[in-house]
Design a protein that fits this description.
The chain contains seven helices and 14 strands. By secondary structure, the chain is an alpha+beta fold. A six-stranded mixed sheet has the order 3-4-2-1-14-13, with no helix packed on it. Strands 5-6-7-8-12-9 form a six-stranded mixed sheet, with helices on one face. A two-stranded antiparallel sheet has the order 10-11. Helix 6 runs antiparallel to helix 7. The longest helix is centred in the C-terminal third of the chain and has 42 residues. The radius of gyration is 22 Å and the shape is globular.
């Protein structure tokens, strides 16, 4: 099972790029802190009460059971016999709130094996590479002892990077039985978040239980199109008068899925995000180069100059993604209109 862990910092573009990068790496499970948006009605997603921590399975491995999603700060799922927990403790929380979250988390996980606990606790301790240990760090270590889990972080590579500041606040813990061949590492690709992604593997996948990945291409067998059924499917989702592009796209896709089957094309690899193209790929590479130049700056003046270039590259990537999604939306509308006219 291939796992990606990241804090998206509630950023839309970061979540969009995560979609593409996990497709490229054939990821099975994504552990997310501060997601931008939880898709409604999607059985492959689960989040905590405040939508601060989430887990997304990529379709090849099903969610066996939702263990806990009613607390703030963590969500626990059972996936392939492993209890996977995504956590996020915002800096604004008081120590009392932090302790309450840890107590609830510990209560839910004690006695369950094997487990993975990953996320951003905004806690510092020398145990995972910080220069000192703060109050949250001490509390987190006490909770670790109760749950009998080990730290998976390796090395001293920072996971948070912003304006020349770096720290290790994204951490991964798990049962000692899972530590063999886990291949834990910090991903150096561009994420558009001020956090780097973390990637690791758990065990070996059983090909017999791997399901075919769902295609994200908007292609349907139009010979089966039923106009009356399409209209009725649209009426089911017609509760709101004002919708943004993403919401309207979701409604149209659900209506098409309810009306006719999708085309299934034989393929060995997952399809990229529907809006992905060569221009976006080039912009992502430019952002990665610009960010690395900022990180290597030796003087404040040099850092400021390179940061300006990086900001321009980030803005260009954001514009290109929005333009591509807008064009895809228009194309989808044209296809739906053509079907309506038949």
């Amino acid at each position: 099972m291939e796992v990606t862990q990241i804090n998206l910092n509630h950023c839309d573009i970061a979540q969009q790029l995560l979609w593409q990068s996990t497709t490229e790496s054939l990821c099975d499970v994504v552990i997310i802190a501060e997601p931008y948006r939880i898709p409604p009605g999607n059985g492959n997603w689960a989040a905590d009460k405040a939508a601060m921590a989430a887990i997304h399975v990529m379709g090849s491995i099903p969610i066996e059971e939702v263990i806990s999603s009613s607390y703030e700060g963590f969500v626990i799922l059972k996936i392939q016999g492993i209890y996977v927990c995504s956590c996020y403790a915002p800096p604004r929380w008081t120590m009392q709130q932090f302790h309450q979250m840890l107590d609830a988390l510990t209560e839910k996980l004690i006695g369950r094996r094997p487990i993975i606990v990953a996320g951003d606790f905004n806690a510092w301790t020398v145990e995972w590479g910080s220069r000192c240990t703060n109050a949250r760090g001490y509390s987190r270590l006490e909770a670790l002892a109760k749950m009998e889990i080990a730290l998976f972080n390796e090395g001293t590579v920072s996971t948070f990077r912003k304006d020349g500041r770096e720290s290790i606040i994204d951490v991964t813990f798990g049962s000692p039985s899972l530590m063999s061949n886990i291949n834990w590492r910090v991903y150096e690709g561009y994420t558009h978040s001020d956090h780097q992604a973390i990637k690791f593997s758990i065990g070996r996948q059983n090909p017999a239980i791997r399901q075919r990945a769902r295609t994200y291409e908007r292609k349907w067998k139009t010979t089966a199109f039923a106009r009356d059924l399409f209209v009725e499917a649209l009426r089911v989702d017609s509760g709101r008068s004002i919708l943004n592009e993403n919401e309207l796209t979701d409604i149209l896709v659900r209506a098409c899925d309810a009306t006719m089957p999708r085309k299934q094309e034989p393929r060995k690899e997952r399809q990229p995000a529907y809006w992905w193209n060569a221009a976006i790929s080039n912009h992502r590479a430019s952002c990665l180069r610009a960010r690395r130049r900022v990180q290597r700056a030796r003087t404040e003046a040099d850092r400021e100059e390179r940061s300006a270039v990086f900001r321009v590259a980030r803005a260009a990537l954001k514009r290109e993604i929005k333009l591509s999604k807008r064009n895809c939306f228009k194309e989808l509308c044209r296809d739906c209109h053509s079907l309506w006219q038949k």
